[in-house]
Amino acid sequence: MKRLGIMAALPQELSDLLARMRESGDVETVALGARDYHVGCVAGVAVVVTLARIGKVAAAATASALIHKFDVDAIVFTGVAGGVHADVRVGDIIIGDVLLQHDLDASPLFPPYEVPLLGRARFDADRALSDALFAAAQAFVACDGDALMARFGVARPRVLRGMIISGDRFIASREAVHALRDALPDALAVEMEGAVIAQVCFEHGVRFAVVRTVSDSADEHAPGAFADFLGAVAGVYSSGLLLRFLV
After folding, report:
1. Is pLDDT at 198 greater than 90 in this prediction?
2. How large is the C-alpha radius of gyration of the chain?
3. Name one Pfam family in it (predicted).
C-alpha cells in the first residue's frame, strides 16, 4: 500500500487520530473543495486523513479527491452507525463486507437498489483490508473492552461482519428501522456514506473497507443516543481501532 486514505463524516470520529498525527510534527494540510486533507504518516504508514462530512454526495466528492488529487490506492471509512438487525446492539463494531444504498430506486427502469448502468446493487469491500480491520477491532476489544464498559456503560463490544446500508436519511423511528429490516433482512447497520464510497472505489479500481461502531438503535431514541455516543465514545473507538490496524 503506497498511501491510504482515511475518512470519517464527523470531526469527533477523527479527532484522536489527527492529534496523534500532529504530535509527530510531520503533517501537511491541504485545503481543497471546502475540506482539509491532512497528509502525513501514522505508525510508519503514509496516510491522507480527511473529514468527508455527512451524506452521499459529500462522501463521493471526498473519495474522488483522495483518488485523483492525493493518489491513494486504498480508502478506509470509519465512524458510527445505527443498528438495524435485531441482534446488533450499541457498542458493537461492524466490518462492512458488503455495502448497498437502501434509498436508491430507479425502478422500473432498473431493479431497486441497483446502480443504473453498473448492473449491481451490492459492492464487496476489499477482503484483505476488511480482514485487517476485523483483527484490529478484535485486538481493540480484547485490550479495552472492559474499560469501555466501565467508562461508557456500553455492553462489551462484539466485532461483527456483514452488510452495511447507506442512504441520505438519518433513521430515527421504529417504523423506519423495521421497514429496513423487512426489505433488507441481512443488513446489520445503517449510515449515510459507506455505499457511495464503495461505488466510487469500484468504478476506479481502488480498494476500500468500511468499519462502523453502533451508536444507537436507529429508532426514536436515536438522536439523543447518537449525540451522547458521538461525544463520549466515537473518537476512542476510531483511534484505538485504526492505530491497531495501521501497526
Report:
1. yes
2. 17
3. PNP_UDP_1
Structurally, how many domains does the chain consist of? 1
Going by C-alpha positions, the residue among 238, 242, 245, 246 that lies closest to residue 9 is 238
CATH number of the domain bearing residue 35: 3.40.50.1580
Domain that holds residue 49: 4-246
State the Cα–Cα distance between residues 104 and 119, nearest whole angstrom. Answer: 13
13 is catalytic: yes
**What DSSP assignment string belongs to 107-167?**
TTTS-TTPBTTTTBS-EEPPHHHHHHHHHHHHHHHHHHHHHHHHHH-PPPP-EEEEEEEE-
In the set 97, 114, 193, 216, the catalytic residue is 216
What is the DSSP-derived secondary structure letter of residue 168? S
What percentage of residues in the chain have a pLDDT greater than 70?
A: 88
- State how far the Cα of 225 lies from the Cα of 201, in Å rounded to an integer: 31
φ/ψ of residue 93, rounded to 5:
-105, 130
Average pLDDT over residues 205-233: 74
Return mean pLDDT, the chain: 90
| Cα–Cα dist 241/238, whole Å | 5
- C-alpha cell belonging to residue 173: 423511528
Which of these is catalytic: 13, 97, 126, 193?
A: 13
Q: Would you say the pTM of this structure is higher than 0.85?
A: yes
